[in-house]
Amino acid sequence: MGRLEGRALAWAITFCSTSAFFLIGYDQGVMGSIINTPYFLEPLHVRADDADTISNIVSLYDIGNMAGCIVTLFIGGKLGRKNMIYLGCSILIVGAVIQTASYSVAQIITGRIVAGLGNGMNTATIPTWVAETSSANHRGQLIATQLSMTAFGATIAYFINYGFYHLTGQIVWRFPVAFQIVFAIITLICLPALPESPRFLYVKGRHEEADKVMAALKGRPVESAEVQRERSEILAAIAAEDSAGEYGWKTIFYDKSGQQIPRRMALVIIIQVIQEMTGTNIIVNYSSSIFITIGLEEDLSLLLGAVVCISFWLGSLLGIFLIERVGRKKLLISGTIPVLVCYIIYMVMVKDGRSTQLWVAFAMTCLLMAAFGWSWLPCAWVLGPELVPVRYRHVGAALNVLSNWTFVFVTVKIGPIGLANLGWRFYIIFIIFTAIQLPIGERYSILSPKLGDSCADFLTRPVWFFYPETKGLTLEEIDRLFLKNPDDGDYSDELEKEKEMGVAIRAE
Q: Distances in Å between the alpha carbon of 285 and those of 64, 203, 290, 489?
C-alpha cells in the first residue's frame, strides 16, 4: 500500500480498476466504428449486408461477459476481490490477442468470448471492491468514476478509429483491437500495491490484516475511535448474518431469516434490466452505422459517432458530481425524463429523413446520451453492491452485472436486425421501456415484509419497483434498511436525518 492512505488510497483503488470499465466502452466504440469497414470485413470473409453475422461478432462478446459473471458467482467469495481481478485481466489479454490475430469469423468470435469472460469477471468484482474500500460519503462518487471511464473508453475508441479510417490496410482495425491490452496490463501492474477489501478479510477471519487495511483507508491508527467504530459495525453485521442462518444458495431464492435476501437480489437485477432495455448500448455500438443508414456520409458519420460519445462522457462527469449531492433516486428521475423526450423527438425526425431533420435527430442523440450518462449509467451499478449484505455481496454484484450483460446482448443482437426490418418503428420499444423507468424512485416503505420473502412473490407484483435512498449511508446501515420493519416508519429517512445531525448510528 506504500504511503497512500485515506482518500488518496480510495482514489488509487478506483483509478487502478478503471481499466475494466474503460474497456467496456472502448470495445463498444471500436466495434461500432470498424464493423462496417472493408478492411475488417474482407479478411474475415463477411459481407457488408450480412446483419446476422455482424451482430454475432459484436454481441457474442456479451455472452463471454455473462459467463464471467457466472464464474464470479461461484468462486468470487473464495478468491477475493483482488484475485478475481488478476484472473479477469489475464484472461482478457488472451482474448485480445486472439482477436487481433483473427482471419475468420470463428476465430474473432472465440477471441471476443474469451475477452468477455475476463471482462465479465472484472465488472462483476470491481464495483464491490470499490464499494467496500470507500467511505459512505464518497462511495457513489468513486463507482460513478468507474462508469465515466466506460463513456471515456468509447470516446477514445471512436477517435482512434477515426484517425485510422484515413489509413489503408488491416492496421485500421487490428491496432485498435490490440490496444485494449495496454489497459489490462496497467491494472495488473498496479494491483500488488493496493489492499484487499477489509470486509472480505473480516468475513474470512483475517482480522489483523483487515484492521491494517481499514486504518489505511481511514488514514487513522488502528486504535482510533473511527476505525474501531466501523470495525465494530462490520463485525456486528457479519455476526447478524451468521445468526440468521448458514450461507447457502437456497437463501438467495427463499429466505425467512429477516434479511430479505431474495428481494434484495431482485432489486439489483431489475435495475440493470430496465437500464439496458432503453437501448442506449445500440447507440454506442452502432451510432456511426445508424447515421449512415439514415442518410449521412460515412466519413461524417464516423466523426458524429465520436461526438455522441463525447456527449455521453460529459454527462457521466456530471453524474460524478451529482450522485452524492442529490442522491440515487432523484438522479435516476432527472435522467429518465430527458431521455424519454429525446427518444420521441428522434423517432419523429428519422421517420422522413430530410436533411434538417437528420441534424435534429443527431442533436437528440447527443442529449439523450448525456442524460443517460449522468443518471442511469452510474446509479444502476452503484446500487448493485450497496443493496446486498457482505456474505452475499459477490453474488449480488455478479447478478447485477450478469443482468446488465444479458440485456446488453439482447439489445446489441437485435439492434441491426430491428433497424433493418422496422426502421424508425424500432425505437418505440425503447420509448416504452424508458417510460417504465419513471416510477423507480419512490418510498421504500412499500416493500413490506407482509408481501412475503420469496423471489417469486416479489416478481409477480406489478412493475412498480421501489428502491431505498442509500446516499451517505455505510454498507452496514443499508443492511439495516432491510432488517427494519418499514411499517414502523420510513427508516431510510430516519437514517438520513441522523446522518445530517451527526449522530452515530449504532446497531440495535
A: 17, 40, 10, 45
Instruction: List, in sequence order, every residue forming a beta bridge with 254; answer none if it has no partner.
Output: 454
DSSP 292-338: HHTT--HHHHHHHHHHHHHHHHHHHHHHHHHHHHH-HHHHHHHHHHH
With 0-12 CB in 10 A as exposed, 13-18 as middle and 19+ as buried, what is 190?
A: middle
pLDDT tens-place string over residues 397-416: 899 999 998 988 888 778 77
SS3 content of the chain, % helix, strand, coil (to 5): 80, 0, 20
Using the Cα atoms of residue 219, residue 393, residue 490 and residue 332 in order, give the sign of their dihedral.
Answer: positive
For residue 245, CA distances in Å to 240, 242, 251, 254, 385 come to 9, 6, 9, 12, 21
**pLDDT by residue (tens digit) across 247-301?**
666 777 776 667 788 888 989 998 999 888 888 877 776 666 667 666 667 677 7
Alpha-carbon Rg for the chain in angstroms: 23
Place of cell 466504428: 33
Q: What is the DSSP letter of 354?
A: -
pLDDT, tens digit (0-9, with 9 covering 90-100), for 146-205: 889 888 988 887 787 777 767 777 888 898 889 889 888 989 999 999 999 999 999 999
Q: Is 246 helix (H, G, I), strand (E, B) or coil?
A: coil
pLDDT at 358 over 80: no
Close Cβ partners of 210 (under 8 Å, ≥ 6 residues apart)? 198, 199, 201, 202, 231
Q: What is the DSSP letter of 2?
A: T
**Amino acid identity for residue 213 in this structure:** V
pLDDT of residue 492: 43
| 454 φ/ψ angles, rounded to the nearest 5 degrees | -95, 150
